[in-house]
Amino acid sequence: MKKQILCMIFCALIVTSVLTGCGKENVALIEEDTTSQQQTETESSYPDDLPADLNLAGEQVRFLYREEVSNEFYSEALNGDIVNDAQYNSILATEERLNADIVLVPRPGHMTSVRQEYMNHIKNSVQAGDDTYAWVDLMVGNVPVLMQEGIFMDVLQNPYIDVTKPWYLKNIENMAIDDHLYFVSGDASLGYLKSIFCMYFNVQVADDYQLGNIYELVDNGEWTLDKVIELTTITSQDLNGDGIYTADDKLGLLVHDWVHPKGFMGSTCFDLYAEDEDGTWVLTIGSERNVDVCNKVYAMLYATSGVYHSGVTSTATEDAAVYNALSAKFMAGDVFLTTAQMDDAVSQFRDMESAYGILPCPKYDTAQSEYRSVSRTTHNAFAMPVTCANVDAAGAVMEALSASNHETVIPAYFETALKTKYSRDNDSARMYDLIRETTVTDFGYVYNNAIGATTGLFDTGITKENTLASELASKKTSLEAALEVFLETVRDKCGH
């Protein structure tokens, strides 16, 4: 049925391409002979650099994906939703173009209660020599944990993957260890876009308090921690007068998820590590600016009237009721600002009747030259097991699907769904662009789970004033040792 649908869609939306009629032979990769190539060679209509005559002979390429969020990668059928259908058609077009069979293998693994079992499944299957998976989806923050088992291939060695292409995360090559990279992330999945930290604000509340054009603050470089403090104080009301802000009051700022303050770590350029002159990652946290950032975030989150911390997370099943109730509170106009992730416009606020807008997480101060955004490390990354049965085929499918999604799925989600369907004004559309364009991949945040949980220094530093220096002093030696052990383990297990 897929092939029949493609005949109509592919001809109308893509362009004519030479497709071979090979059946499911026991051949991993077929390229046309020179004569055939000369006869059929035309300028490629695709943005990637894959050979025009690449034919995978019906090869099945299986992707393990976290079941709870598998729709950010795969669609089973057309259903009329613009993003779903673009995703379905992109997979279909990739299959037809390469004569491949892309298969989803879903397994629970996103929620906190099942993450470890999911990771164990990957490790055990690879160590048992199981070649079921060509690619395994992981939260990007958990890839480094399993990297230490030596079970993933270096994607930089794959002949068909080019991580400098725009369909991979910006600066992802900087996540390499000794020029070896064990995961890719980008437009093959919507995961990273959906998970970018941001803030949403209620336009009606801004109008009620005559706050002016909030977007101009961003445009003028004035959207800072101090400005958030100012507006939070103005827009909050302690309804019962007890001096304590709870979910029953009108809030200036809601910290919707206990993980969301990591967005401020990214937006204030609070860097934990840097590469030395040899390209080796070293711990660099501890500057005077780091201390000042922690103190200012502390002032915003813990010493400002009108702030409420939910203490829950969207990835814990037991927190769902509270999380959704707080979303409803924002939608009802009882919250001015809420911390968020980009997809909340779709997953949380799609039925909101009053206008709301999106903003980047604030800069530290006006002297900071640029806004910066990061994506929550629960977002998707793909790793190729060392047991992958056909490395070249897996690489070709990843590259072709990523390129196809870049031209079709990402515009459907980003341009049509977020910026048009769910944006309430043109300024929000500009903010979406700004947030996406300033999103970076941060080594300290991505590798955190494997190198001693260094982000805990930020977490502690923002909960009590002037604590960063003492926390660092007590943990610096162990953190440096953890990084060194990690690097040596990866070098040893992965054969650097």
Would you kindly provide a written description of the structure presented here, covering whatever features stand out?
This protein is α/β, with parallel strands linked by helices. The protein is built from 19 helices and 11 strands. It folds into 2 domains: 25-193 and 378-419, D-Maltodextrin-Binding Protein, domain 2 (3-Layer(aba) Sandwich); 197-373 and 425-479, D-Maltodextrin-Binding Protein, domain 2 (3-Layer(aba) Sandwich), CATH 3.40.190. The strands form 3 sheets. A 5-stranded mixed sheet has the order 8-5-9-4-10, sandwiched between helices. Strand 6 (273-275) and strand 7 (281-283) form a beta hairpin. The two termini are 46 Å apart. The model is unreliable at 1-42 (pLDDT under 50).
Radius of gyration: 24 Å
- Main beta sheet: strand number and arrangement? 5 strands, mixed
Low-confidence stretches: 1-42
Distance from first to last alpha carbon: 46 Å
Order of helices and strands: HHEHEHEHHEHHHEHEEHEHEHEEHHHHHH
**What characteristic shape results from the CA principal axes?**
globular
Instruction: Domain count, please report it.
Output: 2
Which CATH first-tier class of the largest domain would you pick? Alpha Beta
Secondary structure tally: strands: 11
Mean pLDDT metric = 91
Number of helices: 19
Give me the CATH architecture of the largest domain, please. Answer: 3-Layer(aba) Sandwich
The name of the CATH superfamily of the largest domain reads Periplasmic binding protein-like II
Helix fraction?
25-40%
The CATH topology of the largest domain comes to D-Maltodextrin-Binding Protein, domain 2
- Overall SS class: alpha/beta
Tell me the strand order in the biggest sheet. 8-5-9-4-10
DSSP strand (E) fraction?
5-15%
